Amino acid sequence: MERGAIPLDDVPGAVDVQATLESGQTYLWWRPDGDTYRTDGLSGGDAWYRTVIDDDVIDVRQTATAIEWRGTTDAAPIVRDALGLHDDLDAVRGAARSDPLITAAWDAYDGLRIVRDPFFGCLVSFICSAQMRVERIFEMQERLRREYGTPITFDGQTVYSVPEPSALAAATESDLRDLKLGYRAPYVQRTAAMVASGELTKRDIDGRAYELARETMTDFVGVGNKVADCVLLFSLGYLAAVPLDTWMQTAIEDHYPDCERGRYEDTSRAFREHLGPHAGYTQTYLFHYLRSGGSAPEPTE
DNA sequence: CTCCAGGGAGCCT
DNA sequence: AGGCTCCATGGA
Question: Which positions fall inside the HhH-GPD domain (predicted)?
């Protein structure tokens, strides 16, 4: 096992690992101890979090002065990328739109960063996210890893990697339904087959202009505009992407009604222009804040 | 019992 | 293009 630490002083802006990994951005990090993903807002600030990237197990936890890591490889550069530690958070916030709701969200979870999950795992997890509660999306990914991942021995435990496209492409719809994927089972199988065969892959998406990248993403089965935005934002670093789920639709109706345009593409464009640069960052703060029970502060006069 | 969860595909005009 | 309807599963 290799170990190390990334001093917080080396990171531009604040860091909050718990807010980053428990804000519904990623279903590919979990707690190896205790096994629960806290949705109750209680402190998990010093807990270890685990992921598997390219057959390497990586654990991280935040201390008062650093982000500690341990893993099967020298994980420092991987952790910096995966947790968005390169993002200059002060600059991101400084450039963003500010209003009472956005300020409250940012103040509540200062240090929340946009993750960069591996493309295929992110794609599969968000296909699974359709009409599904956060806790159960985690359970689906855990079952997929256990059934279709590669076992890795780490710290005396057996950890399963995120499945390869070919592994899920070889599964049948019935196999995946047995893992409680429901009607998402054929979507996952067919999308995995597209990636495995080379018909459509990350290479066809990454680097394209945002709106074209999103449109291309929807060629995957089980991927509409919302899931496309999630993958662009949480895997490929398209910080302009603003996933418009039911929470954000409600938020727009309640707080930004002028941005409501009926069609997803048009509402998205209006909302992105309203939020300003790196709109996806602000969207993610709003999503986590609203879903955790936060509300717009009453104007004080 | 009903309703809903970080939606999307298929089919209809 | 835009508007239905259906789709699994489990917890409240």
Answer: 128-291
User: A201: which residues sit within 8 A by CB, 6+ positions away?
Assistant: A194, A195
User: Would the pLDDT of A40 be above 50?
Assistant: no
**CA nearest to A102, candidates A291, A300, A289:** A289
Q: Does A39 have pLDDT greater than 50?
A: no
Half-sphere exposure of residue A83, counting CA atoms within 13 Å on the CB side?
35
| Tokens, residue A286 | 């709003």
Residue type at A164 in one-letter notation: E
Could you tell me the fold of the domain covering A2-108?
Answer: TATA-Binding Protein (3.30.310)
Q: Which CATH class is domain A119-234?
A: mainly alpha
CA A88 to C1' C8, in angstroms, rounded, equals: 42
Q: What is the pTM of this model?
A: 0.96
Cα A86 off chain centre by: 16
- Return positions of chain B under 7 A from a protein CB: 5-9
Nearest nucleotide to A230, CA against C1' atoms? B6
The label of the residue with tokens 């420092």 reads A76
| Contact assessment for residue A115 and residue A21, using Cβ atoms and an 8 Å cutoff | yes
Q: Is the CB of A3 under 7 A from strand C?
A: no
pLDDT in tens, A152-182: 999 999 999 999 999 999 999 999 999 999 9
Q: Which of residues 38-77 of A touch strand C (CB under 7 A)?
A: none
* Residues 6 or more apart in contact with residue A183 via CB below 8 angstroms: none
State pLDDT tens for residues A196-228: 999 999 999 999 999 999 999 999 999 999 999
Is the fold of A2-108 the same as that of A119-234? no
In angstroms, the CA A68 to CA A71 distance is 10
Structural domain boundaries of chain A?
A: 2-108, 119-234, 246-291
